[in-house]
Write a structure and sequence with these properties.
By secondary structure, this protein is of the alpha/beta class. Helices cover about 45% and strands about 15% of the residues. The longest helix is centred in the first third of the chain and has 27 residues.
Length: about 475
Protein backbone atom coordinates (compact mmCIF):
# COMPACT_ATOMS: atom_id res chain seq x y z
CA UNK A 1 0.00 0.00 0.00
CA UNK A 2 2.76 2.57 0.79
CA UNK A 3 4.39 1.90 -2.62
CA UNK A 4 1.05 2.39 -4.40
CA UNK A 5 0.41 5.60 -2.48
CA UNK A 6 3.90 6.90 -3.31
CA UNK A 7 3.41 6.08 -7.00
CA UNK A 8 0.10 7.91 -6.99
CA UNK A 9 1.73 10.94 -5.39
CA UNK A 10 4.57 11.03 -7.94
CA UNK A 11 2.12 10.56 -10.80
CA UNK A 12 -0.07 13.41 -9.57
CA UNK A 13 3.02 15.61 -9.32
CA UNK A 14 4.04 14.60 -12.85
CA UNK A 15 0.69 15.73 -14.20
CA UNK A 16 1.16 19.12 -12.54
CA UNK A 17 4.64 19.45 -14.01
CA UNK A 18 3.45 18.40 -17.48
CA UNK A 19 0.70 21.04 -17.51
CA UNK A 20 3.05 23.80 -16.35
CA UNK A 21 5.87 22.85 -18.70
CA UNK A 22 3.56 22.43 -21.67
CA UNK A 23 2.22 25.95 -21.12
CA UNK A 24 5.78 27.28 -20.99
CA UNK A 25 6.66 25.35 -24.16
CA UNK A 26 3.81 26.90 -26.09
CA UNK A 27 4.69 30.38 -24.86
CA UNK A 28 8.21 30.21 -26.24
CA UNK A 29 7.58 28.39 -29.55
CA UNK A 30 5.33 30.88 -31.31
CA UNK A 31 7.14 30.56 -34.63
CA UNK A 32 6.62 26.79 -34.60
CA UNK A 33 2.92 27.42 -33.93
CA UNK A 34 2.70 29.77 -36.90
CA UNK A 35 4.58 27.37 -39.19
CA UNK A 36 2.21 24.61 -38.12
CA UNK A 37 -0.76 26.67 -39.28
CA UNK A 38 0.89 26.91 -42.67
CA UNK A 39 2.14 23.32 -42.80
CA UNK A 40 -1.14 21.65 -41.87
CA UNK A 41 -2.70 22.97 -45.08
CA UNK A 42 -0.38 20.91 -47.28
CA UNK A 43 0.85 18.17 -44.90
CA UNK A 44 -1.49 15.91 -42.88
CA UNK A 45 -0.85 16.76 -39.20
CA UNK A 46 1.55 19.45 -40.42
CA UNK A 47 4.47 17.02 -40.74
CA UNK A 48 6.22 14.85 -43.33
CA UNK A 49 5.93 11.70 -41.17
CA UNK A 50 3.43 10.81 -38.44
CA UNK A 51 6.33 10.19 -36.03
CA UNK A 52 7.06 13.93 -36.19
CA UNK A 53 3.61 15.06 -35.05
CA UNK A 54 2.87 16.51 -31.61
CA UNK A 55 -0.08 17.99 -29.74
CA UNK A 56 -0.92 20.78 -30.39
CA UNK A 57 2.02 21.21 -32.79
CA UNK A 58 5.62 20.02 -33.12
CA UNK A 59 8.80 22.01 -32.67
CA UNK A 60 10.12 22.80 -36.15
CA UNK A 61 13.90 22.91 -36.48
CA UNK A 62 15.88 25.32 -38.62
CA UNK A 63 19.49 24.10 -38.51
CA UNK A 64 22.06 21.99 -36.70
CA UNK A 65 25.78 22.16 -36.02
CA UNK A 66 27.85 19.68 -34.05
CA UNK A 67 25.78 18.52 -31.07
CA UNK A 68 23.38 21.48 -31.26
CA UNK A 69 20.17 22.31 -33.13
CA UNK A 70 18.15 25.53 -33.40
CA UNK A 71 14.39 25.76 -33.83
CA UNK A 72 12.51 28.27 -35.98
CA UNK A 73 12.16 30.55 -32.96
CA UNK A 74 15.95 30.70 -32.75
CA UNK A 75 16.18 28.66 -29.54
CA UNK A 76 19.32 26.55 -29.18
CA UNK A 77 19.23 22.96 -27.88
CA UNK A 78 21.62 20.12 -27.22
CA UNK A 79 20.46 17.41 -29.60
CA UNK A 80 19.87 14.01 -28.03
CA UNK A 81 17.20 13.19 -30.60
CA UNK A 82 19.75 12.92 -33.41
CA UNK A 83 17.15 12.22 -36.08
CA UNK A 84 16.05 8.95 -34.40
CA UNK A 85 19.67 7.80 -34.49
CA UNK A 86 20.64 8.88 -37.99
CA UNK A 87 23.06 11.55 -36.79
CA UNK A 88 25.60 9.54 -34.82
CA UNK A 89 28.11 11.67 -36.74
CA UNK A 90 26.46 14.84 -35.39
CA UNK A 91 25.41 17.78 -37.53
CA UNK A 92 27.50 19.23 -40.35
CA UNK A 93 30.55 17.15 -39.52
CA UNK A 94 33.37 18.57 -41.69
CA UNK A 95 34.19 15.19 -43.26
CA UNK A 96 30.54 14.55 -44.11
CA UNK A 97 30.10 18.05 -45.53
CA UNK A 98 33.16 17.50 -47.72
CA UNK A 99 31.79 14.14 -48.90
CA UNK A 100 28.42 15.64 -49.83
CA UNK A 101 30.08 18.56 -51.60
CA UNK A 102 32.21 16.14 -53.62
CA UNK A 103 29.12 14.18 -54.65
CA UNK A 104 27.30 17.39 -55.57
CA UNK A 105 30.17 18.41 -57.86
CA UNK A 106 30.59 15.03 -59.55
CA UNK A 107 26.98 13.82 -59.70
CA UNK A 108 24.38 12.96 -57.09
CA UNK A 109 22.39 10.47 -59.15
CA UNK A 110 22.84 8.27 -62.21
CA UNK A 111 20.60 5.23 -61.54
CA UNK A 112 23.80 3.33 -62.37
CA UNK A 113 26.11 1.70 -59.83
CA UNK A 114 29.27 3.66 -59.08
CA UNK A 115 32.58 2.70 -57.48
CA UNK A 116 31.64 4.39 -54.22
CA UNK A 117 28.50 2.24 -54.07
CA UNK A 118 30.63 -0.87 -54.31
CA UNK A 119 33.06 0.46 -51.68
CA UNK A 120 30.25 1.15 -49.18
CA UNK A 121 28.79 -2.32 -49.80
CA UNK A 122 32.20 -3.83 -49.05
CA UNK A 123 32.52 -1.85 -45.80
CA UNK A 124 29.04 -2.78 -44.56
CA UNK A 125 29.65 -6.45 -45.39
CA UNK A 126 32.96 -6.29 -43.50
CA UNK A 127 31.47 -4.66 -40.40
CA UNK A 128 28.49 -6.95 -40.06
CA UNK A 129 29.83 -10.24 -41.42
CA UNK A 130 27.63 -10.34 -44.54
CA UNK A 131 28.37 -12.10 -47.83
CA UNK A 132 26.33 -9.77 -50.03
CA UNK A 133 23.92 -6.86 -49.72
CA UNK A 134 21.58 -4.64 -51.70
CA UNK A 135 20.91 -0.97 -51.07
CA UNK A 136 17.51 0.62 -50.51
CA UNK A 137 16.42 4.03 -49.21
CA UNK A 138 14.97 3.45 -45.75
CA UNK A 139 14.57 0.95 -42.96
CA UNK A 140 11.05 0.16 -44.16
CA UNK A 141 12.36 -0.78 -47.60
CA UNK A 142 15.14 -2.85 -46.05
CA UNK A 143 12.80 -5.01 -43.96
CA UNK A 144 10.24 -5.25 -46.79
CA UNK A 145 12.83 -6.54 -49.26
CA UNK A 146 14.47 -8.86 -46.72
CA UNK A 147 11.13 -10.53 -46.04
CA UNK A 148 10.48 -10.94 -49.77
CA UNK A 149 13.91 -12.49 -50.29
CA UNK A 150 13.35 -14.85 -47.34
CA UNK A 151 10.03 -15.96 -48.77
CA UNK A 152 11.57 -16.50 -52.19
CA UNK A 153 14.46 -18.48 -50.71
CA UNK A 154 12.23 -20.77 -48.63
CA UNK A 155 9.09 -20.98 -50.77
CA UNK A 156 7.05 -20.27 -47.63
CA UNK A 157 4.63 -17.43 -46.80
CA UNK A 158 4.32 -17.01 -43.02
CA UNK A 159 6.58 -14.67 -41.08
CA UNK A 160 7.06 -14.42 -37.34
CA UNK A 161 7.60 -11.04 -35.70
CA UNK A 162 8.24 -10.03 -32.12
CA UNK A 163 5.40 -8.64 -30.01
CA UNK A 164 5.67 -4.84 -29.84
CA UNK A 165 8.48 -4.46 -32.40
CA UNK A 166 8.39 -1.91 -35.21
CA UNK A 167 9.92 -2.86 -38.56
CA UNK A 168 8.65 -0.09 -40.81
CA UNK A 169 5.25 0.59 -42.29
CA UNK A 170 4.70 -2.05 -44.96
CA UNK A 171 1.64 -4.26 -44.54
CA UNK A 172 3.30 -7.51 -43.41
CA UNK A 173 4.81 -6.00 -40.25
CA UNK A 174 2.06 -3.62 -39.14
CA UNK A 175 0.93 -5.94 -36.38
CA UNK A 176 1.65 -5.50 -32.66
CA UNK A 177 3.50 -2.20 -32.92
CA UNK A 178 3.24 0.92 -30.77
CA UNK A 179 2.72 4.04 -32.93
CA UNK A 180 -0.75 3.69 -34.47
CA UNK A 181 -1.85 1.23 -31.80
CA UNK A 182 -2.26 4.20 -29.46
CA UNK A 183 -4.46 6.07 -31.94
CA UNK A 184 -6.54 2.99 -32.68
CA UNK A 185 -6.99 2.17 -29.00
CA UNK A 186 -5.24 -1.22 -29.19
CA UNK A 187 -1.96 -0.39 -27.40
CA UNK A 188 -2.78 -2.96 -24.73
CA UNK A 189 -3.83 -5.70 -27.14
CA UNK A 190 -1.66 -8.78 -26.83
CA UNK A 191 -3.72 -10.96 -29.11
CA UNK A 192 -7.47 -11.32 -29.63
CA UNK A 193 -10.33 -12.88 -27.69
CA UNK A 194 -8.79 -12.22 -24.30
CA UNK A 195 -5.20 -12.71 -25.39
CA UNK A 196 -2.87 -15.70 -25.28
CA UNK A 197 -0.66 -16.87 -22.47
CA UNK A 198 2.85 -15.58 -22.00
CA UNK A 199 4.40 -18.57 -23.80
CA UNK A 200 2.03 -18.54 -26.79
CA UNK A 201 2.21 -17.25 -30.34
CA UNK A 202 -0.81 -15.66 -31.95
CA UNK A 203 -2.40 -13.69 -34.76
CA UNK A 204 -3.79 -10.22 -34.13
CA UNK A 205 -5.38 -7.27 -35.89
CA UNK A 206 -3.41 -4.70 -37.91
CA UNK A 207 -2.16 -1.60 -36.10
CA UNK A 208 -2.96 0.56 -39.10
CA UNK A 209 -6.00 1.23 -41.17
CA UNK A 210 -5.65 0.24 -44.81
CA UNK A 211 -3.98 -3.13 -44.20
CA UNK A 212 -5.99 -5.99 -45.78
CA UNK A 213 -7.49 -8.13 -43.03
CA UNK A 214 -6.23 -11.37 -44.57
CA UNK A 215 -2.62 -10.17 -44.21
CA UNK A 216 -2.88 -11.30 -40.59
CA UNK A 217 -2.96 -14.92 -41.75
CA UNK A 218 0.69 -14.70 -42.74
CA UNK A 219 2.05 -12.75 -39.74
CA UNK A 220 2.33 -14.48 -36.36
CA UNK A 221 3.41 -12.79 -33.14
CA UNK A 222 5.81 -14.14 -30.51
CA UNK A 223 7.06 -12.33 -27.37
CA UNK A 224 10.70 -11.24 -26.98
CA UNK A 225 13.09 -13.05 -24.62
CA UNK A 226 10.87 -16.13 -24.68
CA UNK A 227 12.36 -19.28 -26.19
CA UNK A 228 9.32 -21.36 -25.20
CA UNK A 229 6.95 -19.30 -27.32
CA UNK A 230 9.26 -19.57 -30.34
CA UNK A 231 9.72 -23.31 -29.79
CA UNK A 232 5.95 -23.72 -29.66
CA UNK A 233 5.37 -21.66 -32.80
CA UNK A 234 8.01 -23.42 -34.86
CA UNK A 235 7.00 -26.80 -33.50
CA UNK A 236 3.46 -26.29 -34.79
CA UNK A 237 3.88 -24.25 -37.99
CA UNK A 238 7.64 -24.19 -38.63
CA UNK A 239 7.39 -25.89 -42.01
CA UNK A 240 5.30 -22.93 -43.25
CA UNK A 241 7.44 -20.13 -41.75
CA UNK A 242 9.73 -18.26 -44.12
CA UNK A 243 11.36 -15.91 -41.62
CA UNK A 244 11.57 -14.58 -38.11
CA UNK A 245 12.21 -10.83 -38.20
CA UNK A 246 13.36 -9.28 -34.95
CA UNK A 247 15.39 -6.52 -33.42
CA UNK A 248 18.18 -8.42 -31.62
CA UNK A 249 17.94 -5.73 -28.97
CA UNK A 250 14.44 -4.24 -28.91
CA UNK A 251 14.54 -0.49 -29.49
CA UNK A 252 11.02 0.67 -30.14
CA UNK A 253 9.71 0.26 -26.59
CA UNK A 254 12.66 1.93 -24.93
CA UNK A 255 15.52 -0.60 -24.91
CA UNK A 256 15.13 -4.28 -24.06
CA UNK A 257 18.35 -6.28 -23.79
CA UNK A 258 18.23 -9.94 -24.86
CA UNK A 259 18.65 -12.34 -21.95
CA UNK A 260 21.83 -14.45 -21.92
CA UNK A 261 21.38 -17.39 -24.28
CA UNK A 262 18.18 -16.09 -25.87
CA UNK A 263 19.60 -15.03 -29.25
CA UNK A 264 21.71 -18.18 -29.41
CA UNK A 265 18.59 -20.32 -28.92
CA UNK A 266 16.70 -18.28 -31.53
CA UNK A 267 19.54 -18.96 -33.96
CA UNK A 268 19.43 -22.70 -33.22
CA UNK A 269 15.65 -22.94 -33.65
CA UNK A 270 15.62 -21.05 -36.93
CA UNK A 271 18.39 -23.24 -38.33
CA UNK A 272 16.60 -26.37 -37.13
CA UNK A 273 13.37 -25.44 -38.92
CA UNK A 274 14.87 -23.90 -42.06
CA UNK A 275 13.59 -20.45 -41.10
CA UNK A 276 15.49 -17.37 -42.30
CA UNK A 277 16.55 -15.34 -39.27
CA UNK A 278 16.38 -11.60 -40.04
CA UNK A 279 17.93 -9.09 -37.66
CA UNK A 280 16.48 -5.58 -37.93
CA UNK A 281 19.53 -3.47 -37.11
CA UNK A 282 18.05 -0.23 -38.43
CA UNK A 283 18.54 1.36 -35.00
CA UNK A 284 21.33 -0.73 -33.53
CA UNK A 285 23.55 -0.99 -36.58
CA UNK A 286 26.70 1.18 -36.20
CA UNK A 287 25.37 2.73 -32.97
CA UNK A 288 25.67 0.21 -30.15
CA UNK A 289 28.98 -1.10 -31.57
CA UNK A 290 30.97 -0.84 -34.77
CA UNK A 291 29.32 -4.07 -35.92
CA UNK A 292 26.00 -3.38 -34.24
CA UNK A 293 24.15 -6.08 -32.33
CA UNK A 294 25.78 -8.78 -34.43
CA UNK A 295 29.12 -7.81 -32.92
CA UNK A 296 27.85 -6.94 -29.46
CA UNK A 297 25.90 -10.16 -28.88
CA UNK A 298 27.89 -12.51 -31.13
CA UNK A 299 24.99 -14.09 -33.05
CA UNK A 300 24.97 -14.05 -36.88
CA UNK A 301 21.58 -13.88 -38.64
CA UNK A 302 20.86 -15.10 -42.17
CA UNK A 303 19.85 -11.59 -43.25
CA UNK A 304 20.22 -8.20 -41.57
CA UNK A 305 18.62 -4.83 -42.25
CA UNK A 306 20.24 -1.40 -41.87
CA UNK A 307 19.48 2.30 -42.34
CA UNK A 308 19.86 5.44 -40.19
CA UNK A 309 23.48 5.56 -38.94
CA UNK A 310 25.08 3.88 -41.97
CA UNK A 311 24.40 6.94 -44.16
CA UNK A 312 26.26 9.63 -42.25
CA UNK A 313 23.08 11.69 -41.97
CA UNK A 314 21.79 11.05 -45.49
CA UNK A 315 18.93 8.90 -46.75
CA UNK A 316 19.90 5.25 -47.15
CA UNK A 317 19.07 1.69 -46.24
CA UNK A 318 20.50 -1.76 -46.95
CA UNK A 319 19.91 -5.43 -46.30
CA UNK A 320 22.07 -8.45 -46.84
CA UNK A 321 23.47 -11.67 -45.50
CA UNK A 322 24.20 -15.18 -46.73
CA UNK A 323 25.04 -15.45 -50.42
CA UNK A 324 22.86 -18.56 -50.85
CA UNK A 325 19.86 -16.58 -49.60
CA UNK A 326 20.62 -13.36 -51.48
CA UNK A 327 21.11 -15.23 -54.76
CA UNK A 328 17.33 -15.55 -55.23
CA UNK A 329 17.52 -11.92 -56.40
CA UNK A 330 19.23 -13.29 -59.52
CA UNK A 331 16.37 -15.76 -60.06
CA UNK A 332 13.32 -13.52 -60.05
CA UNK A 333 12.89 -12.12 -56.53
CA UNK A 334 12.12 -8.45 -57.17
CA UNK A 335 14.55 -5.96 -55.63
CA UNK A 336 15.10 -2.64 -57.30
CA UNK A 337 14.82 1.12 -56.86
CA UNK A 338 15.75 4.18 -58.86
CA UNK A 339 17.65 5.76 -55.97
CA UNK A 340 19.26 2.59 -54.58
CA UNK A 341 22.95 3.12 -53.93
CA UNK A 342 22.99 6.70 -55.19
CA UNK A 343 26.46 8.28 -55.02
CA UNK A 344 25.50 11.11 -52.65
CA UNK A 345 24.28 8.84 -49.85
CA UNK A 346 26.97 6.26 -50.51
CA UNK A 347 29.76 8.85 -50.41
CA UNK A 348 28.50 10.22 -47.09
CA UNK A 349 27.98 6.72 -45.72
CA UNK A 350 31.44 5.52 -46.73
CA UNK A 351 33.13 8.50 -45.10
CA UNK A 352 30.99 8.08 -41.98
CA UNK A 353 31.87 4.40 -41.56
CA UNK A 354 35.55 4.62 -42.48
CA UNK A 355 36.66 8.07 -41.32
CA UNK A 356 34.24 9.24 -38.62
CA UNK A 357 32.88 6.17 -36.82
CA UNK A 358 36.33 4.82 -35.98
CA UNK A 359 37.41 2.66 -33.01
CA UNK A 360 38.29 5.87 -31.12
CA UNK A 361 34.82 7.23 -31.87
CA UNK A 362 33.16 4.16 -30.36
CA UNK A 363 35.33 4.46 -27.28
CA UNK A 364 34.15 8.08 -26.98
CA UNK A 365 30.50 7.12 -27.49
CA UNK A 366 30.76 4.33 -24.93
CA UNK A 367 32.28 6.65 -22.33
CA UNK A 368 29.60 9.30 -22.82
CA UNK A 369 26.81 6.73 -22.93
CA UNK A 370 27.82 5.29 -19.58
CA UNK A 371 28.19 8.78 -18.10
CA UNK A 372 24.66 9.68 -19.23
CA UNK A 373 22.97 6.46 -18.18
CA UNK A 374 24.72 6.44 -14.79
CA UNK A 375 23.86 10.08 -14.21
CA UNK A 376 20.20 9.37 -14.89
CA UNK A 377 20.29 6.27 -12.70
CA UNK A 378 21.64 8.27 -9.77
CA UNK A 379 19.02 10.97 -10.25
CA UNK A 380 16.24 8.39 -10.30
CA UNK A 381 17.61 6.70 -7.20
CA UNK A 382 18.05 9.92 -5.25
CA UNK A 383 14.57 11.07 -6.21
CA UNK A 384 12.95 7.72 -5.45
CA UNK A 385 11.46 7.63 -8.95
CA UNK A 386 10.10 4.25 -10.17
CA UNK A 387 12.20 4.04 -13.31
CA UNK A 388 15.50 2.72 -14.67
CA UNK A 389 18.12 3.74 -17.22
CA UNK A 390 19.75 1.66 -19.95
CA UNK A 391 23.28 2.12 -21.30
CA UNK A 392 24.04 0.73 -24.77
CA UNK A 393 26.83 2.61 -26.51
CA UNK A 394 25.52 5.63 -28.40
CA UNK A 395 22.00 4.54 -27.45
CA UNK A 396 20.29 4.66 -24.09
CA UNK A 397 17.03 5.57 -22.41
CA UNK A 398 15.03 6.00 -19.24
CA UNK A 399 11.98 3.75 -18.96
CA UNK A 400 9.45 4.60 -16.25
CA UNK A 401 9.22 1.16 -14.67
CA UNK A 402 11.38 0.13 -11.69
CA UNK A 403 12.70 -3.11 -13.22
CA UNK A 404 14.36 -3.49 -16.63
CA UNK A 405 12.05 -4.48 -19.44
CA UNK A 406 12.01 -8.05 -20.73
CA UNK A 407 9.34 -7.66 -23.41
CA UNK A 408 6.44 -5.59 -24.71
CA UNK A 409 4.13 -6.54 -21.85
CA UNK A 410 6.62 -5.09 -19.38
CA UNK A 411 6.64 -1.89 -21.45
CA UNK A 412 2.89 -1.62 -20.98
CA UNK A 413 3.53 -1.31 -17.23
CA UNK A 414 5.53 1.91 -17.71
CA UNK A 415 4.13 5.10 -16.19
CA UNK A 416 3.34 7.24 -19.23
CA UNK A 417 2.52 10.26 -17.05
CA UNK A 418 6.13 10.46 -15.89
CA UNK A 419 7.38 10.50 -19.46
CA UNK A 420 4.75 13.08 -20.44
CA UNK A 421 6.19 15.38 -17.77
CA UNK A 422 9.84 14.68 -18.56
CA UNK A 423 9.68 15.56 -22.25
CA UNK A 424 8.57 19.22 -22.01
CA UNK A 425 10.71 19.69 -18.88
CA UNK A 426 13.86 18.64 -20.74
CA UNK A 427 13.03 20.52 -23.95
CA UNK A 428 12.33 23.70 -21.97
CA UNK A 429 15.81 23.37 -20.49
CA UNK A 430 17.57 23.09 -23.82
CA UNK A 431 17.68 19.30 -24.23
CA UNK A 432 16.07 18.24 -27.52
CA UNK A 433 14.52 14.82 -27.03
CA UNK A 434 12.85 12.10 -29.05
CA UNK A 435 9.04 12.23 -28.74
CA UNK A 436 7.26 9.17 -27.38
CA UNK A 437 8.02 6.94 -24.42
CA UNK A 438 9.07 4.18 -26.81
CA UNK A 439 12.12 6.10 -28.07
CA UNK A 440 15.75 6.44 -26.96
CA UNK A 441 18.49 9.05 -26.89
CA UNK A 442 21.34 8.95 -29.39
CA UNK A 443 24.73 10.48 -28.64
CA UNK A 444 26.89 11.68 -31.52
CA UNK A 445 30.66 11.75 -31.91
CA UNK A 446 30.42 15.53 -31.61
CA UNK A 447 28.87 15.45 -28.14
CA UNK A 448 31.11 16.33 -25.23
CA UNK A 449 31.19 15.50 -21.53
CA UNK A 450 29.82 19.00 -20.90
CA UNK A 451 26.86 18.23 -23.17
CA UNK A 452 26.11 15.04 -21.28
CA UNK A 453 26.47 16.77 -17.93
CA UNK A 454 23.91 19.37 -19.04
CA UNK A 455 21.46 16.53 -19.75
CA UNK A 456 22.18 14.87 -16.39
CA UNK A 457 21.75 18.17 -14.51
CA UNK A 458 18.40 18.93 -16.16
CA UNK A 459 17.16 15.39 -15.56
CA UNK A 460 18.33 15.51 -11.94
CA UNK A 461 16.31 18.68 -11.40
CA UNK A 462 13.29 16.96 -12.92
CA UNK A 463 13.58 13.99 -10.57
CA UNK A 464 13.98 16.29 -7.60
CA UNK A 465 10.91 18.29 -8.64
CA UNK A 466 8.87 15.09 -8.96
CA UNK A 467 9.68 14.33 -5.36
CA UNK A 468 9.30 17.89 -4.03
Amino acid sequence: MPMETDTQRVTAKAKEIAAKEQERLLERTGASGELFKRAVKSLPMGVASTFQAADPYPIYLDRGLGSHVWDVDGTEYLDFHSGFGVNVVGHAHPKIVEAIERAARTGTHFAVTTEVTVALAEEICRRFGLDQLRFVNSGTEATMDAIRVARAATGRDIILKIEGSYHGHHDDVLFSVVPEAEVLGIRYNTGVDGGPGVDDFYMTVPTSKGVPANTAENTLIVPFNNQKALERALGQVGEDVAALIMEPVMMNIGIVIPRPGYLERVRELCSQHGVVLIFDEVKSGATIASGGAIERFGVQPDLACFAKAIGGGTTIGAFGGRADVMEVITRGAAQQGTFNGNPLSCRAGLVALTEVLTPDAYEHLGKLGTMLAEGCRRALEEGGIPAHSVDLGAKGCVSYRPEPLRNYRDFLDCNTDLFAASWPWMVNRGIFMTPGDEEQWTISVQHSEQDVQAYVDAFGEFCAELNA
